[in-house]
Amino acid sequence: MQLQAEQAKMSTVSEHGCHLTASIGQGINWLWREHKPAIATVIIVVSSIKIAKILRKRRLRQQWDNAGQDVVVLHTIPRSRVCPNVSPFALKLETYLKMASIKYVVDYEETWGPKGKFPWITINGEDIADSQLIIERLNGRFQKDLDTSLSQERKALATAFRIMVDEHLFWSIAYFRFVINGGRLIPETMKVPFWKLPVPLIRMNIKKMAWYQGFGRHSQSEMVSMARNDLRALSDFLGHSPFLMGEEPTEVDCAVFGCLAQFEWCDVDTPMHAMMQGNLSLANRRVLPCPEVPMCGGGNVLFFDVLKLLLNVGYVDAPPSLLGEMIGRLLQNLHWLLEGRGRITFVIIVLLGVARWKRAKQRLRQKRVRKRAAGRDVVIVHTLPRGKFCPSLSPATLKVETFLRMCDVKYEVVTRRPVGPKGQLPWIIFNGEPMTDTEVIDYVQDLFAIDFDLNLTKEERAVAKAFTVMADHHLSWCVFTWHFLHSGGLHLPLVIRLPLPVVLLQPLWPIAFRGAVRRAMAQGMGLHTEGELEDIVRKDLQTINTFLGTKSFLMGDVPHPVDCALFGVVGQMKWNMPGSPYSRMLDLEFPSLHRYCQHIKETFWPDWKKNIRL
Predict the structure, then answer these.
(1) Is the whole model's pTM more than 0.70, yes or no?
(2) I need a labelling partner for 190 at 20 to 30 A (CA). Which of 35, 39, 90, 254 fits?
(3) Which run of H or E residues covers position 568?
(4) What is d(CA 446, CA 440) in angstroms, rounded to the nearest whole number?
(5) What is the pLDDT of residues 359-375, one digit of tens each?
């Protein structure tokens, strides 16, 4: 009986499948009969485009192969009128090819490479993407080493500065060029068809990528401050030397020149250009385009001029006649607002102003409540719950807590609302003011008059800045990518207590981690393979290990905030990444870093076991 029932079920399923197939076939036949010319046209057009793309790729591939043996074909965007290339990475790579005396030709037809980025190269039929990976591959193929004159410690410093430029200063270029200034200088400096370099689409993409990466979550003044700190570190370390590492050019000079050339010749309307010229007063001013806005029945009023007058920015010394004219135009605008259709606009403006006033009043009330609840000079750290082997799963949280312990500042950890106003964690409330991790480090040092750089030279301060950027903006992204992309979060139950059983949560992880994967892809670290990412981490750890040597802390015998940043990210590899290649790498290849983590843990975390949840 059971066998007959199963056979009946199978026959029913097969009948349903046959009916579904027949229905689909009838639908296709009906479409073909009723819309035969349109469908045939679509098929012909799509096929022609596909065939044209295939033929074009074959033609280009043949041209690249005809370049010659061991000749690099550099794929990038066309030349600029003011600089050989408006891409810092393309200029970096081309400078390296010239510095290493490697023969190359430039191709402008196929700009975008295998990883969706440019520049990329073709050599002997092989395609290689990512400027730094390209340089490393060419060094091995042609037996080139531009850093032969450097000691191991100086090579480590060069790597740290190169990462600071590529992973941090670059975002200042991209964001100011395309988002804040709207890419308006690109058409003036380049003769490129809009389909080859669609500025509006690039602007949208850069804005989204910068938000995912984290740079785009800051205010414009914060971005300028970060760029100023990077440029000051480079300037202090460079001194009066012709090149960054001394009298001879090295590989890091290619990366530094690629970025600084953009500020010097391409982005002349940014605060960074003023910093390069030494005009810090101009750099402190906000750079904004001032378009003419049609108002008042067809008349043109410089609307931003009125705003600048009201905000007292830049027009303090204007002649009385100009001020009178601008005030007259402003009164004319108010008269227009109170008549006809202007009344609706005026009502909308008033309603929006009232709404913003109520919102500001509510925020002020919340700020007072937070300040009374926390107490004076008590830092409230909002972050994830405690881990099983490490106080936090976040490198930035471990960094902040270690810094507060280093400064002997009282703080409390709150696991409610771990994500802050900027969509990042941790976020900190200090005396009622919400802050990020970097802001609280600077604020605490200023408030309590703590100067960790007091006994350091300018060059040593620049070195500390470079290693801090390496930890915060390079190694931390490697950890982030492994957590959510390569491991898929399978290790999370081993290192942190979950609110629900793993069986219920695991099917939801792909959905929950979708945003994290997008962030890793937008930053660029998620585009690398697992092998490439492992090599990147190994080089970074080797750089830190070489500079650390036998010292107790990175900058000597006295702790420094850079130790907090390094401990935050290296501590993740040691305690929160079980079974990963980075954990094994730390134990087997870099015992000095293992000892370094243990020393910081014993010095600043005597209550380590009380701050974990086994």
Answers:
(1) yes
(2) 254
(3) helix 561-575
(4) 10
(5) 776 666 665 555 555 55
